[in-house]
Design a protein that fits this description.
- With about 450 residues, the protein is mostly helical.
- The strands form 2 sheets. Strands 4-3-5-7-6 form a 5-stranded mixed β-sheet. Strands 1-2 form a two-stranded antiparallel ribbon.
- A hairpin with a 2-residue loop joins strand 1 and strand 2.
Length: about 450
């Protein structure tokens, strides 16, 4: 989990939010560079967990990424628990967990392996939807209470994104003719009121401590990325669907539609209802995020567990047919044959998973981009002696701040300087080609290479 340095943008930003919260003790207002953070306006549950990890393990990449890793494990447990609770067998949930683990995107960048929001969001949104499904199926109030609890936690993780799953739930309730019954219960309104009050309470308290915060939330989250393109992430409507097919769920995508069809045609009533639920929730969510002007690959994360459950319906059906077909065999042979089927199915995906995560390397188009991060990481570990302690960097710096904050604790003070305002005698570290070219063209300097693409310029 610590092989790759802190990533730019979300993970870098969250890491600085966590470091500053750990330092200043303000658990309501998040800070960046000593000022209230109005770029990242999401509630701070993920940052609270990262601060907790920092207190346990110290300032290191592991502390920033551990909440995501824990969320991944609990998502697997959730699928197995739900399968045992609803279907009476842990095996479909186990298969779904194996499918989810071996998708190309889940235990990977921006979800399971980095300190971003999406693994934690996926855990709580999965729990929300599955608890609600059990509530609709059983009419037991404890499932409704847990639905509201996990909905609260999902909103406290990544604001309104988890709410995008609810149109699919609404379609399911209408299709099953259960919406009227739900709306006739006073507990529905009481629970919704309590949950809404607890959600709004954070925003109200934050706005009192940080006046104007609500305006930034409105700009960033209530339509900002949905209604306008940000960061050149303009893709066609079909982006998420083709992305799942071509890369993010390349191994398993075909099993989902076949699994849903299998469940609808050949499953018992329970399987049929679950198949409809998975189809409505996942498909509607993907359609909604496809309507957004800004499209980022990891926005599909909350749909992945439902897609994996759909795949498991097909695989488990085949698994059961094998067991039935070999029913006359001795019991140990029956188990060996069915086990061999799963081994044959999953051995290659798991080999790919282990190779990808044990032999992690930078993508070739990002290698030079993170060279300075590796250099600073080496200094923070005491493996590299710094050639200079001033950095000129034009782009977003959050991923670098994490390491310079860590280094500064060791009494080696790094600082950042505007590359257009250098003075004679300055020794600066530069990695970006644009900045290097500016320094070469506008100053008399001595240039040397200190690490990979990291250069040092001594201004004369």
């Amino acid at each position: 989990m610590e092989k790759l340095p802190i990533r730019i943008w979300d993970e870098g930003r969250l890491s600085i939010n966590a470091l500053e919260m750990n330092r200043n003790g303000d658990y309501i207002v998040t800070y960046y560079e000593g000022q209230p953070d109005h770029w990242n306006t999401k509630p701070p549950l993920m940052i609270w967990l990262q601060v907790g990890m920092i207190k346990l393990f110290g300032v290191r990449e592991l502390s920033i990424r551990m909440p995501s890793a824990i969320a991944v494990v609990f998502t697997f447990i959730t699928l197995i628990w739900f399968s045992r609770k609803y279907l009476g067998s842990y095996k479909p949930g186990m298969i779904a967990s194996m499918v989810l683990a071996t998708t190309e995107c889940y235990i990977n960048y921006h979800i399971g392996r980095t300190g971003d929001y999406d693994a934690l969001l996926t855990l709580f949104s999965t729990l929300t939807c599955l608890e609600f499904f059990l509530y609709v199926e059983t009419n037991r109030n404890r499932y409704f209470v847990f639905t509201l609890l996990f909905l609260l936690l999902s909103v406290y993780t990544k604001s309104i994104q988890s709410l995008l799953l609810f149109p699919g739930i609404l379609i399911y309730l209408i299709h099953e003719r259960k919406l009227t019954s739900l709306l006739s219960k006073p507990s529905t309104y009481v629970g919704a009121f309590i949950c809404t009050t607890l959600i709004l309470s954070y925003y109200i308290i934050r706005n009192i401590k940080d006046p104007g915060f609500i305006n930034y939330v409105s700009e960033n989250e209530l339509g900002g990325r949905f209604l306008s393109v940000q960061s050149d992430q303009n893709h066609p409507f079909t982006y998420y669907f083709f992305n799942l097919i071509e890369s993010r769920m390349r191994t398993w995508w075909i099993a989902f539609p076949i699994g849903i069809i299998t469940g609808l045609l050949y499953g018992d009533d329970k399987i049929k209802r679950l198949s409809r639920y998975l189809l409505f929730v996942s498909l509607t969510y993907l359609v909604i995020i496809s309507m957004s002007k800004t499209k980022l690959a990891w926005y599909d994360a909350p749909a992945l567990p439902f897609l994996a459950l759909g795949c498991s319906i097909l695989i488990y059906t085949i698994f059961q047919r094998i067991i039935t077909a070999t029913g006359n065999f001795p019991k140990y042979q029956n188990r060996y044959i069915s086990g061999f089927f799963l081994l044959l199915l999953f051995v290659t995906p798991y080999q790919i998973l282990f190779n990808r995560n044990l032999n992690t390397t930078e993508n070739y188009w990002e290698k030079s981009y993170y060279d300075l991060s590796y250099y600073l990481k080496g200094i923070s570990r005491g493996k590299i002696t710094p050639a200079a302690t001033t950095i000129c960097y034009k782009d977003h710096k959050a991923h670098l701040y994490f390491y310079t904050e860590l280094i500064n604790k060791n009494q080696i003070i790094f600082k950042y300087k505007d590359y257009t305002k250098l003075n004679s005698g300055d020794s600066v570290l530069v990695v970006e080609d644009e900045v290097k070219n500016y320094v070469r063209n506008n100053y008399t300097s001595i240039e040397s290479n200190v690490y990979e693409n990291v250069g040092m310029f001594i201004i004369k």
